[in-house]
């Protein structure tokens, strides 16, 4: 007897014997998804670093994410301390990384390194999760985190607030740039999760009215150094 | 130019004034107008109901009827779309496909003909009143006509063009749909007509007599005193 | 006994009679139109972006033999396990078995219409598992024991009062009229359930062949949690979800968000490449992807409508559909509502039984205009109508269209028939004639003129 895989593959091959017409395209040029250079029609991410920062800033405002620009790491650490004080956080989770460790120096609340010995129940009780990120996409305002380098899968989603520490040179133009970067960086092996975080968690399920913090973080802070 | 009129079957029988008005405007612009009376129906009711064999026969008849016509102009976006877009589709693989494609290239909806083919937006008409334009779906989405009828209306002296909400929303006619799914069709008419009434216009203009049948039929039943006119009737007025 | 068609007609009648509810739906979608247009304006050329999105899917679907194989190979290389399901029953059995083998008790789900398609929850519950939908809309619909009303906005038909009452009844919470507070009630209720679940079940929006990743799009973060905390992650996906390259997402992700919900990007777009890997602190130890056929290959075999497999389930076609907006999602009686549902369902569940959905359209084309991947939706309704006629015609229809074709083939007869029709119209209006009397129930017909156009024309020429 044929396996399900064989049956389905055979059905597919038979089905594809008759070719389908191409879609009715508006432009004559497009024959496949052209590479980035050929995509001057998507939303603009900005050509220069300054332009990218402008686009990013506008996007984050619209997304209701909060951008905190600082000059250096020591200012960043003060900014985090200030956040933790005003938000009255009791426990902040972070993952092992030079930057996160530098950042939590002045935080008044309890800090816990979540990736040392993972405990989901404890993580659930944390007010905030602090992570680094892989990159930031100006075009869409997305922050990219991976499970291998930014503290795993849950640190950026389970606590009520998510704080990201990043440097301005991590800001990229558009999604294509980000995918190229991801593929180059992980050419041998993809991390088990890569997430594009675009603003704090939200829902519009009740009467299509926007509410932040559906299941993921209600607040998203990006501390951008440089 | 020698224009051969393409008059939809229900315009022929129910609203002949739309056909006469179209002819009048074209003549006034100096064109020779003919009507080939072997024409009947484009076959759309059968096409839309899935009876493509009946529609195909109608298409082949139309090829005969309009053979040699320089241009074919019809005051119904829906029936023109049938000829321009769907004849070639139902005649795919047929020996007369090329003929159908040639006819499609020579066939125009009334307003489309004026603006796109002749490059005219002001036909010198006058019409006192506040009008709003209803985009029939075939004109808007099959033929891509949005600005053309509005350009023509804006040039009419004495006429104020108002935009209504839901201008691009279907009136709910849909041919046989209107009587096979009357509750949906009527609900759509209600949404459409409520918006038309809210627009404050006292005339509703469209390029599709079939939409006007639906809109006018619903408004009359609801006791609303708004006139419905075909674009050609407005353009034929007052000069 | 009711047939899908008779059920549809009576449900559509009830729905269209509810003027207030129809107004509510229009109002709820009002904000969507505004934000969609704002986002679309950010594209330097939306139409060209649609071309690229359409071609990305066209390329993947028309080479499905290769793209799917590549995906499966690369996915397993990443450490996950692929399962193949010919139909719903097989998919349910595969998923049940994974749950049994894992010794699961509690299952948490993130939104996945494909699991609705195969009626997964009923099957799992029958085996004694507790299954909780975690998407807010789906959670509400699960409490109401109702299917989703709209496959992207599952409970958009409900007012906040109804949701508040529902929560009071099932969760014992105090009444509130704040959408925010209602959302927080669900948030608080579900958090521990994520922590306790052993198995997380999700869908997949895209299967990336090149890298063997699956891509999940969501706003709430519930899918992120579903795929992070339980020991086992199962994703169910139709075979048509595959795309060739990771970079295709640079086009597809923003367009999905903009077309479907008027967002620049959905809040979380997440790529999963396998179970937890060495060096990663958390994540499931098993990751299964179930690839479902369930008649998709039958649709693939129809080149005319193959593009229906390009669908990225954004929901844009529902949001602009005047039929959907007036009859709502339930009247369809299908897993996938709206235009795409009317195209797909006859293929998935049988043309004769479900062709009425193709008929229940004015063919306005708003769907086709909205579709980010350029599916020829309203023309496919015409194709389905034709296919249904080719397969079977009722006697009435045969006579009606036969006679119609005969008359319009004879100009003199047509003109004479028209004259008789016009002369007798006042009388005909009083008779219980099919179609005519239906029209007259809610609409007038203009008075018939004395002369037809052809008569007047003749007169004017002489
Ligand atoms: S058919 Fe097109 S518009 Fe409708 S849900 Fe699918 S992708 Fe979106």
Describe this protein's structure.
The complex is a heterotrimer of chains A (226), B (239) and C (462). Chain A is 28% helix and 23% strand. With 226 residues, chain A is an alpha/beta fold. Chain A has one domain (43-225): NagB/RpiA/CoA transferase-like (Rossmann fold, 3-Layer(aba) Sandwich). In chain A, strand 2, helix 4 (98-103) and strand 3 (110-113) form a beta-alpha-beta unit. Chain A is globular, with a radius of gyration of 21 Å. The mean pLDDT of chain A is 93. Chain B is built from 13 helices and eight strands. By secondary structure, chain B is an alpha/beta fold. Chain B is globular. Helices cover 51% and strands 16% of the residues of chain B. The mean pLDDT of chain B is 96. In chain C, the strands form two sheets. A six-stranded parallel beta sheet of chain C has the order 1-10-7-4-2-3, with helices on both faces. Chain C has a four-stranded mixed beta sheet with strand order 8-5-6-9. Chain C folds into three domains: 1-42 and 304-392, Fumarate Reductase Iron-sulfur Protein, Chain B, domain 2 (Orthogonal Bundle); 50-294, Rossmann fold, CATH 3.40.50.10420; 395-461, no CATH class. In chain C, helix 2 packs antiparallel against helix 12, helix 9 runs parallel beside helix 10 and helix 16 runs parallel beside helix 20. Chain C is globular, with a radius of gyration of 26 Å. Chain C has 462 residues and is α/β, with parallel strands linked by helices. Chains in contact: A-C, B-C. Chains A and C meet through helix 1, helix 2, helix 5, helix 6 and strand 9 of A and helix 2, helix 3, helix 4, strand 1 and helix 8 of C. The structure holds iron/sulfur cluster. Iron/sulfur cluster is lined by residues 311-317, 340, 370-373, 375, 377 of chain C. Iron/sulfur cluster binds at residues 311-317, 340, 370-373, 375, 377 of chain C.
């Amino acid at each position: 007897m044929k396996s399900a895989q064989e049956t389905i593959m055979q059905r597919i091959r038979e089905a594809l014997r008759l070719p389908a017409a191409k879609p009715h395209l508006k432009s004559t040029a497009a024959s496949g998804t052209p590479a980035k250079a050929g995509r001057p029609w998507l939303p603009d991410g900005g050509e220069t670093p300054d332009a990218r920062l402008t686009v990013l800033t506008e996007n984050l405002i619209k997304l209701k994410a909060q951008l905190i620009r600082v000059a250096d790491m020591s200012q960043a650490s003060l900014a985090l301390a200030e956040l933790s004080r005003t938000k009255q956080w009791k426990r902040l989770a972070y993952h092992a990384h030079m930057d996160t460790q530098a950042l939590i120096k002045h935080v008044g609340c309890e800090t816990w390194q979540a990736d040392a010995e993972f405990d989901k129940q404890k993580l659930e009780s944390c007010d905030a999760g602090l992570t680094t990120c892989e990159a930031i996409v100006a075009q869409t305002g997305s922050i990219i985190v991976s499970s291998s380098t930014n503290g795993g899968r849950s640190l950026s989603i389970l606590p009520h607030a998510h704080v990201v520490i990043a440097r301005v040179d991590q800001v990229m133009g558009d999604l294509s740039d980000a995918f190229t970067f991801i593929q180059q960086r992980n050419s041998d092996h993809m991390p088990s999760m890569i997430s594009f975080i675009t603003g704090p968690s939200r829902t519009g399920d009740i009467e299509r009215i926007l509410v932040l913090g559906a299941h993921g973080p209600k607040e998203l802070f990006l501390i951008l150094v440089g | 130019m020698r224009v051969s009129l393409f008059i939809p079957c229900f315009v022929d029988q129910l609203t002949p004034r739309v056909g006469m008005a179209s002819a009048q405007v074209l003549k006034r612009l100096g064109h020779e107008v003919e009507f080939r009376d072997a024409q009947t129906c484009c076959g759309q009711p059968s096409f839309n109901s899935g009876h493509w064999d009946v529609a195909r026969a109608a298409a082949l008849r139309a090829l005969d009827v309009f053979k040699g016509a320089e241009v074919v102009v019809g005051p119904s976006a829906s029936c023109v779309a049938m000829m321009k877009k769907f004849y070639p589709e139902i005649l795919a693989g047929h020996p007369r496909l090329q003929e159908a494609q040639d006819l499609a290239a020579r066939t125009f909806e009334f307003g489309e003909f004026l603006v796109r083919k002749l490059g005219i937006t002001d036909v010198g008409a006058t019409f006192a009143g506040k009008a709003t334009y209803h985009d029939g779906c075939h004109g808007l989405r099959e033929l891509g006509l949005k600005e053309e009828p509005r350009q023509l209306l804006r040039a009419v002296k004495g006429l104020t063009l108002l935009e209504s909400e839901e201008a691009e929303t279907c009136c709910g006619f849909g041919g046989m749909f209107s009587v096979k799914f009357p509750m949906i069709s009527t609900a759509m008419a209600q949404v459409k007509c409520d918006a038309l009434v809210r627009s404050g216009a006292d005339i509703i203009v469209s390029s599709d007599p079939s939409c006007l049948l639906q809109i006018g039929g619903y408004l009359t039943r609801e006791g609303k005193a708004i006139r419905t006119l075909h674009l050609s009737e407005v353009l034929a007025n007052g000069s | 006994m009711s047939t899908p068609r008779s059920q549809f007609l009576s449900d559509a009648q009830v729905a269209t009679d509810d003027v207030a509810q129809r107004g509510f739906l229009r109002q709820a979608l009002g904000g969507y139109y505004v934000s969609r247009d704002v986002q679309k304006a950010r594209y330097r050329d939306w139409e060209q972006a649609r071309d690229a999105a359409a071609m990305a899917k066209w390329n993947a679907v028309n080479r499905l033999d290769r793209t799917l194989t590549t995906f499966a190979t690369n996915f397993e290389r990443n450490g996950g396990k692929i399962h193949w399901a010919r139909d719903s029953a097989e998919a349910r059995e595969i998923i049940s078995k994974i749950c049994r083998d894992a010794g699961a008790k509690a299952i948490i789900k993130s939104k996945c219409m494909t699991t609705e398609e195969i009626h997964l929850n009923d099957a799992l519950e029958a085996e004694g598992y507790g299954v909780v939908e975690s998407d807010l809309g789906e959670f509400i619909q699960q409490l109401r024991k109702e299917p989703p009303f709209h496959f992207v906005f599952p409970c958009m038909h409900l007012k906040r009062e109804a949701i508040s009452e529902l929560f009071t009844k099932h969760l014992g919470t105090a009444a509130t009229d704040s959408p925010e507070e209602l959302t927080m009630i669900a948030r608080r209720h579900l958090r521990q359930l994520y922590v306790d679940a052993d198995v997380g079940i999700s869908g997949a929006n895209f299967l990336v062949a090149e890298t063997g990743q699956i891509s999940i799009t969501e706003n709430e973060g519930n899918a992120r949690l579903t795929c992070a905390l339980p020991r086992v992650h199962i994703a169910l996906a139709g075979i048509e979800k595959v795309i060739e390259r990771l970079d295709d997402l640079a086009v597809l992700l923003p367009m999905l968000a903009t077309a479907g919900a008027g967002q620049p990007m959905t809040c979380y777009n997440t790529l999963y490449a396998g179970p937890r890997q060495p060096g990663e602190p958390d994540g499931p130890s098993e990751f299964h992807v179930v690839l479902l056929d369930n008649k998709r290959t039958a649709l693939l075999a129809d080149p005319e409508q193959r593009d229906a497999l390009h669908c990225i389930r954004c929901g844009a076609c529902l949001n602009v559909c005047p039929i959907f907006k007036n009859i709502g999602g339930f009247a369809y009686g299908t897993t996938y509502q709206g235009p795409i549902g009317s195209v797909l369902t006859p293929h998935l569940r049988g043309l004769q039984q479900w062709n009425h959905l193709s008929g229940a359209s004015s063919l306005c084309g708003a769907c086709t205009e909205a579709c980010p991947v350029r599916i020829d939706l309203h023309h496919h309704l015409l194709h389905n109508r034709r296919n249904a006629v080719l397969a079977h015609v009722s006697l009435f229809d045969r006579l009606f269209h036969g006679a119609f074709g005969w008359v319009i083939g004879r100009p003199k007869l047509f003109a004479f028939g028209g004259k008789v029709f016009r002369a007798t119209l006042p009388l005909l209006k009083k008779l219980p004639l099919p179609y005519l009397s239906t029209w007259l129930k809610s609409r007038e017909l203009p008075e018939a003129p004395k002369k037809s156009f052809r008569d007047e024309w003749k007169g004017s020429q002489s």
